[in-house]
């Protein structure tokens, strides 16, 4: 911020010196500096609301819309500046251009406006470009790490499948639950191996994976663990990043349900919220006491990794809220228009 202020002040000083020198040469004498200070202080004050409009309020607008809006704000800027500047100069007896020379005030202010906002837009564009390059580099790093993990997982997948089959065949036919658990574990591994090669998967596949994981955990917790999975009709084939629901479900079991003797309920909901796909994972566990929700996002692998991943991909991470009457709700949204539906 300090650098930007210095650049703006330098620009104003250079423009002020140039205008002062030009006016002195034009009229043949050097005048006081009061009118120059008044000139550029007024321009600075009129620039502030436009900076807020263009770089805060309309920051995400396409450049052609910004250009059209400048065609409206530029003459308005010039008109307001001339009215105020001339009024103050006449009231305090300060120098200003008069008669046919007044057209130079219009021309110089138009030039000032164009150069100033041209520099502003160019600077902000370069900052955005640099930010996108950094984000792209970070995502490339994450992708490289994922690819390495995938390569490690693929070192000998057939060996692992054979191990599962060997274990399954060694289990007596009467131990039906044990056989089912091995099959579910095999399915979980198979899905993880599959999505390690894909950037996007259908919502229904992610939910099926989460359900298999919950079924496996239910073998351990029994009636202490209950779950519900609901998805709004028509959203089953929307594409989302893989392995993004299960870590949150696992977190609910580990920190919410497991510590309670009576257990609890985990509810996964997928709904459409405007142009977003909205996910909510709520549990009726022990909830959070003595900690801020923001602190939780920096602890544990499931929450922190998923939160960081969502921020990198969509600019917004997880939201944590207390569940009523007890427990925690974790939610996040993914823009539907960034994930094409499967054909």
From TrEMBL:
Residues 244-336 form the Histidine kinase/HSP90-like ATPase domain. The chain crosses the membrane at residues 33-55, 67-86, 106-125. Residues 146-225 form the Signal transduction histidine kinase internal region domain. InterPro entries: Bact_2-comp_sensor_kinase, HATPase_C_sf, HATPase_dom, Sig_transdc_His_kin_internal. The keyword Metal-binding does not apply. The keyword Transport does not apply. Keywords: Kinase, Membrane, Transferase, Transmembrane, Transmembrane helix. One of its GO terms (molecular function) is kinase activity. Pfam families: HATPase_c, His_kinase. This is Histidine kinase. The lineage of its organism: Bacteria, Pseudomonadati, Bacteroidota, Flavobacteriia, Flavobacteriales.
């Amino acid at each position: 911020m300090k650098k930007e202020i210095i650049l703006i002040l330098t620009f104003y000083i250079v423009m002020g010196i140039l205008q002062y020198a030009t006016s002195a040469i034009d009229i043949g004498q050097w005048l006081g500096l009061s009118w120059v200070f008044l000139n550029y202080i007024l321009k600075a004050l009129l620039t502030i609301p436009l900076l807020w409009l263009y770089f805060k309020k309309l920051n995400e607008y396409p450049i052609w819309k910004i250009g059209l809006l400048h065609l409206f704000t530029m003459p308005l800027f010039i008109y307001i500046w001339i009215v105020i500047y001339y009024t103050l100069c006449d009231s305090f007896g300060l120098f200003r251009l008069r008669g046919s020379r007044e057209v130079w005030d219009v021309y110089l202010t138009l030039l000032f406006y164009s150069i100033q906002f041209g520099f502003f837009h160019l600077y902000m564009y370069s900052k955005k470009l640099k930010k996108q390059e950094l984000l792209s580099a970070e995502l490339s790093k994450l992708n490289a790490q994922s690819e390495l993990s995938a390569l490690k997982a693929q070192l000998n997948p057939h060996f692992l499948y054979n191990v599962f089959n060997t274990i399954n065949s060694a289990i007596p036919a009467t131990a039906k639950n044990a056989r089912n658990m091995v099959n579910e574990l095999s399915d979980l591994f198979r899905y993880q191996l599959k999505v390690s090669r894909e950037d996007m998967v259908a919502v229904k596949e992610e939910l099926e994976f989460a359900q298999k994981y919950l079924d496996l955990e239910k073998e351990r917790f029994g009636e202490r663990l209950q779950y519900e999975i609901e998805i709004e009709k028509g959203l089953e084939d929307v594409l989302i990043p893989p392995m993004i629901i299960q870590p949150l479900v696992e977190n609910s079991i580990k920190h919410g349900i497991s510590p309670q003797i009576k257990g609890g309920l985990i509810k996964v909901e997928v709904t459409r919220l405007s142009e977003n796909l909205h996910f909510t994972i709520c549990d009726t566990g022990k909830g959070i006491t003595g900690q801020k929700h923001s602190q939780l996002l920096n602890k544990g692998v499931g929450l922190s990794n998923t939160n960081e991943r969502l921020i990198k991909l969509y600019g917004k991470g997880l939201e944590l809220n207390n569940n009523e009457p007890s427990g925690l709700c974790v939610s996040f949204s993914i823009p539907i228009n960034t994930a094409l539906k499967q054909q």
